[in-house]
Design a protein that fits this description.
Low-confidence stretches: none
Number of strands: 18
Strand content: 25-35%
Helix content: 10-25%
Distance between the termini: 21 Å
Number of helices: 9
Largest sheet: 10 strands, mixed
Radius of gyration: 21 Å
Shape: globular
CATH topology of the largest domain: QueA-like
CATH architecture of the largest domain: 3-Layer(aba) Sandwich
Order of helices and strands: EEEEEEHEEEEHHEHEEHEHEHEEHHE
């Protein structure tokens, strides 16, 4: 199966002018490509309720993007960019609650200009000035461990809001502005922790969500903290040589109960982050020793070892997760996934996907191809020929096999 995949087969020509550099004035005015059982048409995103199958349950990722990009300026004038990826030891909510110091794994721009001196940046919270300090602790494979300290009895999340900026993707060739503070968040963003937006959700407005209710379409929320690795390019032809990034996720008992009640309905994943989380949940519920050892981590390739083995259905998987919560008197499952969904993967929980248009030769495009097969080429050809806007601030699609 996966041994035969060549990443060159997932290239396509994406002109720079097709990459959306700014959000549209109205979120739901984006174009919507509709792929339904081989037929392709288009509409506006505001009309998406017309294309979601009856008896559907939509799953959103309610993660919230943090101001993960912090710029420091040395006395020499050199600008150093620190991109916060994840806390080193503490869970992210504990790191945000810190009031004195915290260590983060970071990427550093212009690192050659930063020796060993501490960096500092002024900020203001409620008109009270403060200073943020950054100290290099050690090198890592992807960058550095940076220790942050700051003036005042503020929690680190407030400091990031005051001192940092919206971490726009590298293919958006401009600095973040005030508009991005709102538009690079979904309207339902709730749980801080992502350094990239779950962009399929950016098109939803309060009116669209109300339309879902008016059409008796139910929905629920899970949380997956999107990491910068989502932009990591595939640099090798052999996909087995690509190391998939890890991302943390959480779901509560109420969501799992609603997911269980949706068995038999169409489960619509809003975005590839929701896809990966839902599929990871299935495997957590059925793989040997996952629940028994409270091992809520899914590796990049481990699920492919079970492709020729009879496994429990999705209902059993979700029931097993709920039973774990009940037996352990807890409400939430917190896990980590490195699952890489590639052509040949058999989807267990996801029936329909709502997603934007992705970079050539990317893991996200491989996921779309796993769902659509070679029809992904028809979808992308149509989008390119019909003036669809691509990537994070671009247009949307609903994919129904």
């Amino acid at each position: 199966m996966t041994e035969e995949i060549n990443i060159k087969d997932y290239e396509y020509n994406l002109p720079d002018e097709r990459i959306a550099q700014f959000p549209l004035k109205d979120r739901s005015s984006a174009k919507l490509l509709v792929y339904k059982q081989g037929a392709i048409s288009e509409s506006k995103f505001e009309n998406i309720c017309e294309f979601i199958p009856r008896d559907s349950f939509l799953i959103f990722n309610n993660t919230k993007v943090i101001n993960a990009r912090i710029f420091f300026k040395k006395e020499t004038g050199a600008k150093i960019e620190i991109f916060c990826l994840e806390p080193v030891e503490k869970r992210i909510e504990k790191a945000f609650a810190s009031t004195d110091e915290c260590d983060w794994n970071c990427m550093v721009g212009n690192a050659s200009k930063w020796r060993n001196e501490d960096l500092q940046k002024s900020f203001s919270i409620d008109d009270k000035p403060g200073k943020l300090f950054a100290k290099k602790i050690r090198n890592t494979n992807d960058g550095f461990v940076i220790k942050f300290t700051w003036d005042g009895n503020y929690c680190f999340s407030d400091v990031m809001i005051a001192a940092g900026s919206t971490p726009l993707p590298p293919y958006i060739k401009r600095s973040a502005d005030e508009t991005d503070n709102e538009r690079y968040q979904t309207v339902f963003a709730d749980v801080e922790g992502s350094v990239a937006a779950p962009t399929a959700g950016l098109h939803f407005t309060d009116n669209v969500l109300q339309n879902l209710k008016d059409h008796n379409i139910t929905y629920g929320f899970l949380t997956l903290n999107v990491g910068a690795g989502t932009f990591k390019p595939m640099k090798t032809e052999n996909i087995f040589e690509h190391k998939m990034h890890k991302e943390s996720f959480s779901v509560n008992k109420g969501f799992l109960s609603n997911l269980l009640n949706s068995i038999g309905k169409n489960k619509v994943a809003v975005g590839t982050t929701s896809v990966r989380t839902l599929e990871s949940l299935y495997w957590l519920g059925v793989l040997p020793d996952k629940i028994a050892k409270s091992n809520f981590a899914i590796g990049q390739w481990e699920v492919y070892d079970y492709k020729n083995i009879d496994l429990p259905d999705s209902k059993t998987a979700i029931e097993n997760l709920i039973l774990y919560l009940e037996n352990n008197d807890t409400d939430t499952i917190e896990g980590i996934t490195s699952l890489m969904i590639v052509p040949g993967y058999k989807f267990k929980l996801v029936d329909v996907i709502i997603t934007n248009f992705h970079l050539p030769s990317s893991t996200l495009l491989l996921l779309v191809s796993a769902y659509l097969g070679d029809n992904w080429k028809r979808v992308y050809d149509y989008a390119l020929k019909n003036d669809f806007r691509f990537l994070s601030y671009g247009d949307s699609s609903i994919l129904i096999r």
